[in-house]
């Protein structure tokens, strides 16, 4: 009798579990209106397309587009995502009043940068700074970039009379790029402290793991995933806190010194500048509503700015080094151009000399085109709804993901060899790496395209130029290294590079 009751209890438990799963499935089953992009059918209840989205991304999305057209929706991690391809992608990028970049879906920036508050205001200030005081003044900044890139190469790579193997290439390039960026952002006085440049360079890597946590709890409710990944922050652990303390300790006396001089000298005060241009600290201090008591706010704003200025550029340079090292013919041709330009400028390259690097510019653009991110820039519909030019309508709150690889590898635009890496594809095409269009969306599009792209490309070309002249670089494997795939995104290859002095 006891055994019978035990088996009955187990059976009842199974029944209750099945009922709960059925109810959960009914509640979570996506509902698509008649005029919305078609929802791709799926066979696994609850999970939907999540497996293919994570582990078979490129093939899965390519097949979806071939079968369902320009716009389609998939069901991943418990919510519907509409994927827009090449012809509709630009509509998302240019209509900011409808589509908002969903940065909080990727990382809890509002809790990480707890002193910012109004991200819209900070984004506006930083965009203006990047556009008017950095990208527009690259010629002024070039000597600083060149000086500190050379210093960084000497420090972190150095003399390679005997071949040296370097394993953490992304970390290596990040350290080098952090030097010129730090000097331009906080000025040479504050950046002379090694811990300042290290913090500005490292903090993006420190917060990165938070964004790498898959939103598995979103199957239950999206807010639950947000709650789980922010638990460490809620209990006082913030990966930015240590870096914030370092930056404040070093820039506080610099700012106090400048404030004192402003009060003492009045109209005779001369801003601290890089030649004729403000550094970022001076720019923040020049704002009409600058308030020294809110120093934490400006430091967090600085971190938001450098988050993109250092980490993304160093990632692109790392990809480029592997692309170059695995293609000896390409490397040799870039070396010939570098030698010619170096001879013309007697080793002291300026803005005009960088502009002459046509082959290198084409190479950099091809590196960026082959980032191999399948999807990028998650957006959210913030208006009541939006109807694309193809007739499909997406409702308010819908997540929109951009099928960037469909644009970057478009055979209609780039030809039948669009999937092939051709380093000098753009040499005679009047198509520099900074130029955005509907098929080259690395930096976004329209008037909202990344304002710092001119500085980033300029800096990347200088570091490539210096490395090409100084070293022979090859992959340890002797082959072209593959990137690391994380679902629809990629990270630079994890292999080793061998550096050796040029004879």
UniProtKB/TrEMBL annotation:
Top-rank taxon: Eukaryota
Protein's UniProt keywords contain Heme: yes
Primary localization class, coarse: membrane
InterPro entries reported in the protein's UniProt record: Cyt_P450 (IPR001128), Cyt_P450_CS (IPR017972), Cyt_P450_E_grp-IV (IPR002403), Cyt_P450_sf (IPR036396)
Keywords: Heme, Iron, Membrane, Metal-binding, Monooxygenase, Oxidoreductase, Transmembrane, Transmembrane helix
Binding of heme, residues: 450
PANTHER family: CYTOCHROME P450, P450, PUTATIVE (EUROFUNG)-RELATED
Protein name, as recorded: C-22 sterol desaturase
Species of origin: Rhizophagus irregularis (strain DAOM 197198w)
């Amino acid at each position: 009798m006891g055994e019978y009751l035990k088996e009955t209890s187990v059976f009842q438990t199974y029944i209750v579990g099945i009922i709960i799963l059925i109810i959960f499935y009914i509640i979570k089953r996506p509902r698509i209106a008649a005029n919305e992009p078609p929802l791709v059918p799926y066979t696994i209840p609850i999970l939907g397309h999540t497996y293919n989205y994570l582990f078979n991304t490129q093939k899965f999305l390519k097949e979806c587009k071939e079968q369902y057209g320009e716009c389609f929706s998939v069901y991943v991690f418990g919510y519907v995502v509409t994927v827009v391809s090449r012809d509709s992608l630009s509509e998302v990028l240019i209509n900011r009043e409808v589509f908002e970049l969903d940065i909080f879906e990727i990382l809890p920036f509002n809790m990480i940068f707890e002193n910012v508050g109004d991200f819209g205001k900070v984004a506006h200030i930083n965009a203006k700074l990047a556009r008017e005081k950095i990208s527009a003044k690259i010629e002024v900044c070039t000597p600083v970039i060149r000086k500190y890139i050379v210093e960084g190469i000497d420090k972190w790579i150095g003399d390679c009379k005997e071949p040296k193997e370097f394993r953490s290439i992304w970390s290596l390039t990040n350290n080098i790029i952090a030097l010129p960026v730090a000097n331009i952002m906080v000025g040479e006085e504050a950046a002379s402290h090694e811990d300042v440049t290290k913090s500005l360079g490292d903090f993006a890597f420190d917060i990165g793991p938070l964004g790498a946590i898959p939103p598995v709890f979103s199957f239950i409710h999206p807010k639950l995933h947000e709650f789980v990944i922010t638990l460490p922050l809620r209990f006082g652990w913030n990966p930015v806190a240590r870096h914030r303390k370092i930056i404040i300790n070093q820039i506080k006396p610099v700012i106090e010194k400048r404030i004192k001089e402003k009060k003492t000298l009045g109209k005779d005060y001369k801003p601290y500048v890089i030649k004729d241009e403000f550094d970022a600290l001076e720019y923040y201090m020049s704002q009409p509503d600058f308030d020294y008591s809110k120093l934490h706010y400006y430091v967090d704003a600085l971190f938001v700015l450098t988050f993109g200025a250092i980490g993304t550029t160093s990632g692109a340079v790392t990809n480029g080094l592997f692309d170059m090292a695995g293609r000896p013919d390409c490397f040799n041709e870039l070396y010939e151009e570098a030698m010619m330009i170096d001879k013309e400028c007697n080793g002291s390259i300026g803005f005009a000399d960088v502009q002459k690097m046509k082959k290198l510019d084409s190479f950099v653009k091809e590196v960026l085109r082959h980032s191999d991110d399948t999807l990028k820039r998650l957006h959210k519909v913030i208006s009541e709804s939006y109807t694309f030019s193809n007739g499909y309508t997406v409702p308010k709150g819908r997540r929109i993901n951009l099928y960037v690889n469909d644009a970057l590898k478009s055979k209609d635009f780039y030809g039948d060899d669009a999937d092939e890496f051709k380093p000098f594809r753009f040499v005679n095409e009047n198509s520099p790496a900074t130029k955005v269009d509907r098929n080259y969306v690395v930096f976004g599009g329209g008037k909202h395209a990344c304002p710092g792209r001119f500085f980033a490309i300029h800096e990347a070309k200088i570091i490539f130029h210096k490395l090409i002249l100084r070293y022979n670089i090859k992959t340890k494997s002797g082959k072209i290294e593959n990137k690391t795939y994380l679902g629809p995104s990629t990270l630079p290859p994890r292999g080793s590079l061998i550096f050796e002095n040029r004879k």
